UniProtKB/TrEMBL annotation:
It holds the Pfam family KARI_N. Mg(2+) 2 binds at residues 258, 294, 298. One of its GO terms (biological process) is isoleucine biosynthetic process. Its cofactor is Mg(2+). This is Ketol-acid reductoisomerase, mitochondrial. Its EC number is 1.1.1.86. Belongs to the ketol-acid reductoisomerase family. The gene is ILV5. It comes from the Eukaryota. It is found in: Mitochondrion. The keyword Acetylation does not apply. Mg(2+) 1 binds at residues 258, 262. Pathway: Amino-acid biosynthesis; L-valine biosynthesis; L-valine from pyruvate: step 2/4; Amino-acid biosynthesis; L-isoleucine biosynthesis; L-isoleucine from 2-oxobutanoate: step 2/4. It comes from Malassezia sympodialis (strain ATCC 42132) (Atopic eczema-associated yeast). Keywords: Amino-acid biosynthesis, Branched-chain amino acid biosynthesis, Isomerase, Magnesium, Metal-binding, Mitochondrion, NADP, Oxidoreductase, Transit peptide.
Length: 398
């Protein structure tokens, strides 16, 4: 998933990571009453170590921060565990390498001689030492991290479930398989903890932020708590895979918001909006260069980073009064036009229609090629062909 414009659902999350934002946007809550009297963030830690309750614009939420889980504590916590990553796609790569760099006992399980097997070897995993078939890794692991594609989680479950034995932990990075069990048939045995940690970004970003000493924001949830420590374990794993801060959710809320967000502002919505704006400029005689700069390049290179840094108002204030006047007037028009689409989208997620489509598509033998065909078609749109040229003109690309 692109890191582009993760302002919508994630603006609160970003605010929390950059706690130097004005205290009015994010304040620590000692109690509900404190909501009316903002105090600087972090000044009032909650009683439970490793967890704080923060005021997210009037709603108190618990958050967990990396500083509460130093490496020594993580090493001690997981000293008897073997993390078995089943699947080595984008998340397997990011979470696996971060776990390994954090000194955890971690092995990878993928189809022998598939694309992931090749990629894992390239990343330094060694066949027979810490790289195995899915079955071998699932047998050896105590924390089974199901990071197969969502479609593969469905198609492999009838075979894989035999390895999910009493006392093990079943981990996901998405609520998909569990929540839509009517379609996926993924029903874990009753004697294992079932948890999730869902990084709010691509596995590639999970890795790059970790290497930069930063961290991805993640959510955690518990579906089944047999050990009595499932939530704490989910938080600890979240930290071990490289999260910066973690918030709590449920499997259902995670999957609804995730499917909705990526179809909306994060990916689908942004492509649709860029394309509509670009096409109208072109239809009115603007050059490709002008249409692209006024639609995408300025957004991505100049304005969205300002939103990411300090919020929408900050970006507005950084622009001319002329720009501000027009944006203030037109924003409600766009909101009104988009809202019915978002409502229809949320409904489509909730009814399982989006899941059905993803499962149908993802379980085709030709899924990689079929997806590539459609994304190649985007790359072939005039707007993105122009983008290729414009990006090449950025001085730092030369
Ligand atoms: N990517 C993201 O941005 C993101 C963010 C948060 C959470 N998540 C969640 O994290 C999980 C993993 O997602 P991902 O994007 O990392 O992975 P992905 O690209 O969707 O899946 C890749 C893995 O699934 C394996 N696979 C596919 N079909 C298989 C089959 N029939 N049998 C065995 N293995 C099969 C692939 O192995 P081969 O190479 O052998 O085909 C590969 O190792 C999902 O639940 C996803 O929703 C993803």
């Amino acid at each position: 998933m692109s890191s582009l414009a993760r302002s919508g659902l994630r603006s609160a999350a970003r605010s929390a990571t950059h706690l130097r934002v004005p205290a009015r946007t994010l304040t620590v809550l000692a109690s509900r009453a404190a909501r009316v009297a903002p105090v600087p963030a972090r000044s009032v830690p909650a009683a439970v170590r490793g967890m704080k309750t923060l005021d997210f614009a009037g709603t108190p939420e618990k958050v967990y921060e990396r500083e509460d889980w130093p490496l020594e504590k993580l090493h001690d916590y997981f000293k008897n565990e073997t993390f078995a990553l089943l699947g080595y796609g984008s998340q397997g790569h990011g979470q696996g390498l971060n776990l390994r760099d954090n000194g955890m006992n971690v092995i990878v399980g993928v189809r022998k001689d598939g694309e992931s097997w090749r990629q894992a070897i390239e990343d330094g995993w060694v066949p027979g030492k810490n790289l195995f078939s899915i079955e071998e890794a699932a047998t050896k692991g105590t924390i089974l991290m199901n990071l197969l594609s969502d479609a593969a989680q469905t198609s492999t479950w009838s075979h894989l479930q035999q390895f999910v034995t009493k006392g093990k932990t079943l981990y996901f990075s998405h609520g998909f398989s569990i929540v839509y069990k009517d379609q996926t048939k993924v029903v874990p045995p009753a004697d294992v903890d079932v948890i999730l940690c869902a990084p709010k970004g691509s596995g590639r970003t999970v890795r790059t932020l970790f290497k930069e000493g930063r961290g991805i924001n993640s959510s955690v949830a518990v579906f089944q708590d047999v050990s009595g420590h499932a939530l704490e374990k989910a938080v600890a794993i979240g930290m071990a895979v490289g999260s910066g801060y973690i918030y709590e959710t449920t499997f259902e809320k995670e999957v609804y918001s995730d499917l909705y967000g990526e179809r909306g502002c994060l990916m689908g919505g942004i492509q649709g909006m860029f394309k509509a704006q670009y096409d109208v400029l072109r239809a009115n005689g603007h050059s490709p260069s002008e249409a692209f700069n006024e639609t995408c390049e300025e957004a991505l290179e100049s304005l969205y980073p300002l939103i990411a840094q300090n919020g929408m108002d900050y970006m507005y204030k950084a622009c001319s009064t002329t720009a501000r006047r027009g944006a203030l007037d037109w924003a409600p028009e766009f909101e009104a036009a988009c809202k019915p689409v978002f409502e229809r989208l949320y409904e489509s997620v909730k009814t399982g229609a989006e899941t059905r489509r993803a499962l149908e598509f993802g379980s085709r033998k030709t899924y990689r090629e079929d997806y590539d065909k459609e994304t190649d078609a985007i790359a072939d749109q005039e707007m993105w062909r122009v983008g290729h040229v414009v990006r090449g003109l950025r001085p730092n690309r030369k």
